[in-house]
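Supplementary Methods S3. Input chains for the assembly prediction are listed below.
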Amino acid sequence: MAVTRKTRPAPGTSELAASVGLTDADLVAMYRTVALARAVDERMWILNRAGRIPFVISGQGHEGAQVGIAWPLERKKDFIAPFYRSIATCLAFGMTAQDILMAQYAKATDPSSGGRQMPGHYGNAENNLLSLSSPVATQMLHAVGIALAAKIRGSGQVAMTSMGEGSSNQGDVHEGLNFAAIHRLPFILVIENNGYAISVPAARQLATENVADRASGYGMPGVVVDGSDVLACYTASREAVERARRGDGPTLIEAKVIRLTAHSSDDQQTKYRPEQELAELRSHDALPRFRDQLAEAGVLSDEEEARIAAEIKAEVDAATDYSEAQPDPDPSTAMRWVFAEDWPSETPPPWGLGDGHSAAGHAAEEPRSAAEGATD
Amino acid sequence: MALKTFIEAIRETLAEEMRRDPTVIVMGEDVGKKGGVFLATDGLWAEFGDDRVIDTPLTESLIVGASIGAAVNGLRPVAEIQFADFIFPAFNQILSEAARMRYRSNNGFGVPMTIRAPYGGGVHGALYHSQSVEAFFTHIPGLKVVIPSTPYDAKGLLRSSIRDDDPVLFFEHKKMYRSVRGDVPDTDYVVPLGRAAITHPGTQITVVAYGLMAHYALEAADVVADEGISVEVVDLRTLRPIDKDTLLTSVRKTGKCLVVYEDNRFGGYGAEVAAIVAEEAFDYLDGPVTRIAGPDVPGVPYNHVLEDWFMVNPEKLADGIRKLAAY
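Predicted structure tokens for the full assembly:
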């Protein structure tokens, strides 16, 4: 062991922490966020298998890269346009375990969408996490536009977006990278390359080895990092953030990550992934690797790790109980927020004659007869 | 009060709104030094510079998508799509993103963005420079769709659109840019979104129109007036939200309704107008709700004889009015 207490430059700063310009407390906080994201994600699958929530889309295997990359951004100032695997990104940027679980349950008080979107479609205005949709890579252009506004307004903000290597083939990515480079926007594109676009391997998605190889064609740096190395991800991101804030323009960061789960709860990945590959996945997992790294550096003791694990379990349990207990959204609110003001009653409801939309109108209809409703 | 062309009204409004509100920016293809292919943005670059008048690459999806992002982060972008025919690469951004952002985030995020695009035929623009695209967008909850017909309305409605907190599609008939003139006051007036105007009062037939067709409706109304047919013209001005009150009040008074639109007939915007009238004014109707619209071919053909064949004109409209009047 090279790391000894004598070599610490300052109290609370191990050699490892100092090597990346952080404190031990920072490293522990990063580890806690990676571990929390994993625990939330595992809970989602349990709830799905138990029939409590109908759908899960997972971020397992991406968490280390997400936490490392989100960490250098400034909360409530910078912006992230996340994607559906961005659980750890959202947690690192200000959302809570409860916020993430509320999105799985789609309850009225779900901060992402008030129960309107399917699970995995996070967003939180309070924390500058832009609401995401299902067509992939559309958020690319939103983040570029956020960066454009930051430059025009002189706000000093950086805009980041993340997506998989499959999404990187969409035309919006091309249009956005080109524009961001032309205008030297404070923008970072993060590609979380887990090797699969649902079932199609990366070799059938792009002819080059790295998505980052494309960056030079747009006139910007492209960086490849090992997504299981949290601190390498942090360092790459910090450089990109500094570059963006200096006004030197965008960066493409590609983190090589793993997908530990099927694409979603509706997917059977053994159909298209070799058994051998699935068996080896865990050896590239950032969570145990980061834990061992911090333990070896003397940053994380067994006792502290156990304490964090207990805290996380309590937090996830409480978030689950809270989310379960929340009410479903009231249909009388379903017409709200089509626009900033109330959506005018311009058309009759589709179920018959009437003067305008109202959930009450629907509910007031005569109930269908039992015979009509029966299907068996 | 000064007499101005339609395009002068648009250009002045953009400049005035940019002076009034530093968060208003203009993005599009050739909108900078050149001032736009129709000169709608002429002079803006010289006054407001590179930061606020942005010549984009040929990337319609980016024009809209980056405008969405800029709107989320404190600006009020006015995106120009060079021709409405070229808006479709941005369709996903408009449909899946701009229109749904507020709803899907439960009011977390809004998109105060205006998309301007010249539309319409009769200018030898053929299949790809003549299209009427409004029906694609009026179908989508979360979008406001505006089509003014006079310089006065263009100015008042563009002001309202830019100041609105939600996405607005603002379509300008390119044939009207220089052929239509009208009085425009120097005041900071607005025309509210969602209000139609009765531009020609009458008693026997309601003609519902917008854009260039609102002018043709007035011409046709004058022609048939000499034959003793009294036409009331409703210029919708905002297609969505539609002003049902003005529409239905007129139809309940006249008992007959003819909708005119330049787009292909099948599934066009006028079909929705006809359905609303049929559902909500049925007891007042004294004849079938009728549509005068473009033929169902995939675009406006180029040759001038074919183009004339395609286009609705005041004569075709007057014929339709006569038939409905005689019903």
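The longest helix of chain A spans residues 24-49. Residues 330-376 of chain A form one domain.
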